[in-house]
Amino acid sequence: MSNKVDISDFTRRIDSILETYRRLPPEIATIAENFSKERFRDQAWLDETKHKWKPRKNKRPGRRSQTLLVDTGRLKKSIRKIKATTEQVIIGTDVPYAEIHNEGGEINKTVNVKSHTIKSHRRKAYTRNRNGRAERIKAQTIKDYTVKAHTRKMNLKIPSRRFIGNSYTLARRIELHVTARFVRALK
Prior knowledge:
Helices cover 35% and strands 32% of the residues. By secondary structure, it is α+β, with helices and mostly antiparallel strands.
Protein backbone atom coordinates (compact mmCIF):
# COMPACT_ATOMS: atom_id res chain seq x y z
CA MET A 1 0.00 0.00 0.00
CA SER A 2 1.40 3.42 -0.95
CA ASN A 3 0.64 6.73 0.74
CA LYS A 4 0.63 9.78 -1.48
CA VAL A 5 1.02 13.21 0.04
CA ASP A 6 -0.31 16.26 -1.74
CA ILE A 7 2.30 19.02 -1.33
CA SER A 8 0.78 21.49 -3.79
CA ASP A 9 -0.66 23.63 -0.97
CA PHE A 10 2.70 23.60 0.81
CA THR A 11 4.60 24.68 -2.34
CA ARG A 12 2.01 27.40 -3.05
CA ARG A 13 2.58 28.82 0.44
CA ILE A 14 6.38 28.65 0.07
CA ASP A 15 6.14 30.47 -3.27
CA SER A 16 3.87 33.06 -1.68
CA ILE A 17 6.35 33.60 1.19
CA LEU A 18 9.27 33.96 -1.26
CA GLU A 19 7.31 36.49 -3.32
CA THR A 20 6.45 38.46 -0.18
CA TYR A 21 10.11 38.37 0.88
CA ARG A 22 11.10 39.76 -2.54
CA ARG A 23 8.50 42.56 -2.47
CA LEU A 24 9.05 43.73 1.12
CA PRO A 25 12.18 45.94 0.78
CA PRO A 26 10.58 48.62 -1.45
CA GLU A 27 7.50 48.61 0.79
CA ILE A 28 9.68 49.09 3.88
CA ALA A 29 11.54 51.92 2.14
CA THR A 30 8.22 53.63 1.40
CA ILE A 31 7.14 53.30 5.04
CA ALA A 32 10.44 54.85 6.21
CA GLU A 33 10.23 57.62 3.58
CA ASN A 34 6.67 58.52 4.61
CA PHE A 35 7.66 58.42 8.30
CA SER A 36 10.44 60.97 7.65
CA LYS A 37 8.11 63.25 5.69
CA GLU A 38 5.56 63.07 8.53
CA ARG A 39 8.20 64.60 10.82
CA PHE A 40 7.96 67.84 8.79
CA ARG A 41 4.18 67.86 9.16
CA ASP A 42 4.29 67.11 12.92
CA GLN A 43 7.29 69.40 13.57
CA ALA A 44 8.60 66.74 15.97
CA TRP A 45 10.75 63.60 16.11
CA LEU A 46 8.90 60.46 17.13
CA ASP A 47 10.87 57.75 18.92
CA GLU A 48 9.18 56.12 21.91
CA THR A 49 7.77 59.56 22.72
CA LYS A 50 7.31 62.70 20.64
CA HIS A 51 10.10 65.31 20.87
CA LYS A 52 8.95 68.70 19.54
CA TRP A 53 11.42 70.64 17.43
CA LYS A 54 12.88 73.76 18.96
CA PRO A 55 10.90 76.75 17.62
CA ARG A 56 12.57 79.47 15.59
CA LYS A 57 13.67 82.56 17.49
CA ASN A 58 12.05 85.12 15.23
CA LYS A 59 9.03 84.92 12.96
CA ARG A 60 9.78 85.21 9.27
CA PRO A 61 8.21 88.45 8.01
CA GLY A 62 5.99 88.25 4.97
CA ARG A 63 5.54 84.47 5.18
CA ARG A 64 2.17 82.78 5.53
CA SER A 65 3.70 79.57 6.84
CA GLN A 66 6.02 79.50 9.83
CA THR A 67 6.76 75.80 9.25
CA LEU A 68 10.24 74.81 10.37
CA LEU A 69 12.75 73.48 7.81
CA VAL A 70 10.39 74.23 4.91
CA ASP A 71 10.99 77.24 2.69
CA THR A 72 10.91 75.89 -0.85
CA GLY A 73 10.21 72.28 0.19
CA ARG A 74 13.48 71.03 -1.33
CA LEU A 75 14.65 69.19 1.79
CA LYS A 76 11.34 67.42 2.41
CA LYS A 77 10.93 66.45 -1.27
CA SER A 78 14.50 65.13 -1.48
CA ILE A 79 13.93 62.31 1.04
CA ARG A 80 13.81 59.10 -0.99
CA LYS A 81 14.82 55.47 -1.24
CA ILE A 82 18.57 55.11 -1.87
CA LYS A 83 18.81 51.33 -1.68
CA ALA A 84 16.26 48.58 -1.09
CA THR A 85 17.54 45.01 -1.17
CA THR A 86 16.65 41.95 0.90
CA GLU A 87 19.72 42.67 3.05
CA GLN A 88 19.43 46.43 3.48
CA VAL A 89 17.01 49.34 3.10
CA ILE A 90 18.44 52.88 3.04
CA ILE A 91 16.57 56.15 2.66
CA GLY A 92 18.32 59.49 2.50
CA THR A 93 18.72 62.86 0.89
CA ASP A 94 21.32 64.58 -1.26
CA VAL A 95 20.63 68.09 0.04
CA PRO A 96 23.89 69.46 1.50
CA TYR A 97 22.30 71.15 4.54
CA ALA A 98 20.22 68.12 5.59
CA GLU A 99 22.82 66.72 8.00
CA ILE A 100 23.26 69.88 10.07
CA HIS A 101 19.49 70.34 10.42
CA ASN A 102 19.02 66.68 11.38
CA GLU A 103 21.95 66.42 13.80
CA GLY A 104 22.39 70.07 14.85
CA GLY A 105 25.74 71.80 15.15
CA GLU A 106 27.68 75.03 14.81
CA ILE A 107 28.79 76.98 11.77
CA ASN A 108 31.84 79.14 12.36
CA LYS A 109 33.31 80.45 9.12
CA THR A 110 33.85 83.48 6.96
CA VAL A 111 31.86 83.70 3.74
CA ASN A 112 32.34 85.88 0.67
CA VAL A 113 29.34 87.97 -0.40
CA LYS A 114 29.27 88.94 -4.07
CA SER A 115 28.46 92.44 -5.25
CA HIS A 116 24.72 92.86 -5.82
CA THR A 117 21.99 95.47 -6.28
CA ILE A 118 19.13 96.16 -3.90
CA LYS A 119 16.00 98.00 -5.03
CA SER A 120 14.49 100.23 -2.37
CA HIS A 121 10.75 100.97 -2.63
CA ARG A 122 9.07 103.97 -1.09
CA ARG A 123 5.67 102.36 -1.19
CA LYS A 124 3.88 99.30 -2.47
CA ALA A 125 1.04 99.32 -4.96
CA TYR A 126 -2.33 99.90 -3.39
CA THR A 127 -5.86 101.13 -4.13
CA ARG A 128 -7.33 104.22 -2.51
CA ASN A 129 -10.71 105.93 -2.68
CA ARG A 130 -10.74 109.56 -3.68
CA ASN A 131 -13.98 111.48 -4.07
CA GLY A 132 -15.99 108.23 -4.28
CA ARG A 133 -13.90 106.58 -6.99
CA ALA A 134 -11.17 103.92 -6.67
CA GLU A 135 -7.73 104.95 -7.75
CA ARG A 136 -4.84 102.50 -8.25
CA ILE A 137 -1.46 103.74 -7.05
CA LYS A 138 1.62 102.05 -8.53
CA ALA A 139 4.67 101.09 -6.51
CA GLN A 140 7.38 103.72 -6.71
CA THR A 141 11.07 102.94 -6.66
CA ILE A 142 13.23 105.50 -4.95
CA LYS A 143 16.66 104.17 -5.73
CA ASP A 144 18.87 101.21 -6.52
CA TYR A 145 21.69 100.52 -4.08
CA THR A 146 24.81 98.61 -5.09
CA VAL A 147 26.33 96.55 -2.30
CA LYS A 148 30.05 96.00 -2.77
CA ALA A 149 31.60 92.55 -2.46
CA HIS A 150 32.64 91.82 1.13
CA THR A 151 33.20 89.06 3.66
CA ARG A 152 30.93 88.16 6.55
CA LYS A 153 31.65 86.08 9.65
CA MET A 154 29.05 83.42 10.41
CA ASN A 155 28.72 82.12 13.96
CA LEU A 156 25.52 80.07 14.07
CA LYS A 157 24.19 77.37 16.35
CA ILE A 158 21.75 75.14 14.48
CA PRO A 159 19.48 73.13 16.83
CA SER A 160 18.88 69.47 16.09
CA ARG A 161 15.54 68.98 14.37
CA ARG A 162 15.55 65.28 13.63
CA PHE A 163 13.55 64.11 10.64
CA ILE A 164 15.44 61.01 9.50
CA GLY A 165 17.08 58.17 11.41
CA ASN A 166 16.38 55.16 13.60
CA SER A 167 13.19 55.31 15.63
CA TYR A 168 11.36 52.84 17.86
CA THR A 169 8.03 53.86 16.30
CA LEU A 170 9.35 53.40 12.77
CA ALA A 171 10.77 49.97 13.66
CA ARG A 172 7.41 48.99 15.17
CA ARG A 173 5.51 50.14 12.05
CA ILE A 174 7.85 48.11 9.85
CA GLU A 175 7.55 45.07 12.14
CA LEU A 176 3.73 45.20 12.05
CA HIS A 177 3.74 45.60 8.25
CA VAL A 178 6.12 42.66 7.73
CA THR A 179 4.10 40.46 10.10
CA ALA A 180 0.85 41.31 8.34
CA ARG A 181 2.35 40.62 4.91
CA PHE A 182 3.68 37.18 5.94
CA VAL A 183 0.40 36.24 7.66
CA ARG A 184 -1.44 37.16 4.45
CA ALA A 185 1.06 35.11 2.41
CA LEU A 186 0.41 32.02 4.57
CA LYS A 187 -3.38 32.11 4.10
